[in-house]
Amino acid sequence: MATLDDVARRAGVSTATASRIINGSSKPVSAALRDRVEAAVADLHYVPNAHARQLAGSGRTAVGVVVHDVSDPYFAEITRGLQRVATTDGRLVIICNTYRDPARELDYVELLRAHQVAAMVLAGSGYHDVAFARSLRGKLRAYELSGGRVAVIGRHDRTGDAVVPDNEAGGFMAGEHLYALGHREIGVIAGPRNLTTTTDRLTGIRRAARAHGRPSPKVVYADFDRDSGAAATGDLLSAHPRLTAIAALNDSMAVGALAFLRDVDRRISVIGFDDMPIARDVTPALTTIRLPLADMGAQAMSLALSPASPDPRVERVPASLVERASTFPP
């Protein structure tokens, strides 16, 4: 079996440099050095000894799942699908909640690597953060070089196996539905600005506005939860009282919007996004854009537990409109 010294010798670098690159050190190295070390690792089939022992035995049975918040219905559904596949494969699932803190996500990736999990699934949205993305890529690359497998859900700034919901097309469907009903001025309750999911869904709605020759929708940013959705509805209607429809970029915020409208006895259309189980049970039943969340989780775990592929596998998940009672002509 190849040693770290063999890798360093093949790459023409010091053992310390090879170790830093393989272990995902934050100390900067040139792209050329990194490429040489990674090529040497691949050529020599190098695996660090601790991981080699785990892979040779039967102990490497745990898988790690990194989510923003498993109590959020969106992530609860995704985790249900992840666990279904992992349990069938005899795996223990370690769930890590980042609460949308990029630094905590990096810490959890490092912790899961230290625990030598067989695979990781990153189930939360990507971030618009260049430094974070660079650091995450380095840590995941080091983990994969040690024999681990990675799959992500959503749009992330990395190349690898992924399950990618069509958030932009779903946003377009939401806008298209409202404009087709005759609405001219709509408001949008968006999620956090730094998430790629927010950007993609909002981009789709804005594209629908242009396609229908309508003014750009009014946007308020919230936190992807019920209470912030209710507060954002109040802000939207105070600033733009002529709005006749609201598109909330997830169902939790849409439920908050419906609650606010009920409290102030105001009747305007509301559409959500994701089709979480609660969407059909609220009054009025929520029109929404459906994503098969549990299936997305199952797909991601299946990718993570399957052998590595020479080329990245990207499974795209289409969105669909589910029309219920919460949307109607103005």
Automatic annotation (TrEMBL):
Q: Which SUPFAM superfamilies match?
A: lambda repressor-like DNA-binding domains, Periplasmic binding protein-like I
Q: Which domain of life is it from?
A: Bacteria
Record-linked Gene3D superfamilies: 3.40.50.2300, lambda repressor-like DNA-binding domains
Q: What does the UniProt keyword field contain?
A: DNA-binding, Transcription, Transcription regulation
One GO molecular-function entry: DNA-binding transcription factor activity
Locate the coiled-coil region(s) and give their ranges: none
Where in the numbering of this chain does the HTH lacI-type domain appear? Answer: 2-57
Annotated protein name in UniProt: Transcriptional regulator, LacI family
